[in-house]
Q: What sequence folds into this?
């Protein structure tokens, strides 16, 4: 009998006691499962770091918990990501069902068959990310969403709140964002997105292909609008909604498959990794860890 550990974030928006039980029952068809619950930010890092003797670590959470698991992973024990958040980008990018019980069935089969995929990760100023890092506008919106607080059950606001705050932030600036940072070797820009996967994120069921050339087995891609004006915003939104990506859009800097990205800000700017606000930075270095972890698919 294989041994697995299930790490659960009980505060993730789609995690309930009933779903935890159903997920565990599905995984226990082919493995002995120890279930651990997080109770504070950063706890998943500690729980995953402590797992040394297991055939797999399953994480039932949203993207924040996935990110913590990646920061605790040693690269030897394969990870399985069960979608428990409102967006759950990483599990969706890996092609897993959005229903966590169906995803558990798929991952249980993958564990039994030894079906894994070796993926690359980014590391921003020492903090790993699984799919995205943003500095400037993108991260400011993440911070504003966090400022809305959580529900009584501890759940974060969803995609609708994010969309509203994107619109409000742009309106406050009258649709104008000027260059505020430099991506070394690429150029000056208003803000920057660093991705190691496509899609960059999702708006409900809609994938947003900001960095369409990015792949999990490759290096980092950078997408950076030089400046934004109302016509530019309309053009960028049109590209995203039509799934065309931004690699050839006018006024957008794009660099593909990089091992290192250095960004210097004119002033301290907000930064996030995988949707987690990490405060303000005036400089950041993103490096690619190629083949960093093994994931069940």
A:
């Amino acid at each position: 009998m294989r041994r697995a550990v299930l790490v659960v974030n009980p505060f993730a928006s789609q995690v309930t006691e009933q779903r935890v039980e159903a997920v565990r029952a599905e995984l226990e068809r082919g493995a002995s499962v120890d279930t651990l619950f997080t109770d504070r930010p950063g706890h998943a890092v500690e729980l995953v770091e402590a797992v040394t003797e297991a055939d797999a670590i399953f994480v039932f959470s949203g993207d924040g918990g996935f990110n913590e698991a990646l920061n605790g992973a040693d690269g030897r024990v394969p990870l399985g990501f069960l979608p428990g958040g409102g967006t759950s980008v990483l599990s969706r990018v890996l092609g897993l069902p959005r229903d966590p019980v169906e995803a558990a069935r798929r991952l249980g089969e993958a564990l039994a068959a030894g079906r894994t995929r070796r993926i690359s990760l980014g590391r921003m100023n020492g903090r790993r990310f699984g799919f995205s890092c943003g500095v400037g506008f993108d991260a400011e919106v993440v911070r504003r969403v966090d400022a809305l607080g959580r529900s009584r059950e501890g759940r974060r606001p969803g995609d609708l709140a994010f969309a509203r705050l994107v619109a409000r932030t742009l309106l406050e600036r009258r649709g104008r964002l000027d260059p505020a940072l430099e991506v070394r070797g690429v150029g000056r820009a208003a803000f920057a997105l660093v991705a190691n996967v496509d899609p960059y994120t999702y708006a409900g069921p809609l994938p947003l292909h900001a960095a369409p050339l990015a792949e999990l087995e490759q290096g980092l891609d950078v997408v950076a609008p030089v400046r934004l004006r109302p016509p530019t915003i309309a053009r960028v939104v049109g590209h995203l909604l039509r799934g065309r990506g931004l690699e050839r859009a006018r006024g957008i800097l794009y660099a593909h498959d990089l091992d290192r990205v250095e960004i210097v800000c004119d002033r301290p700017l907000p930064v996030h990794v995988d949707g987690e606000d990490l405060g303000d930075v005036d400089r950041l270095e993103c490096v690619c860890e190629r083949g960093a972890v093994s994931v069940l698919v």
Q: What stands out?
A: The mean pLDDT is 93. The first strand starts at residue 2 and ends at 8. The longest helix spans residues 100-113.
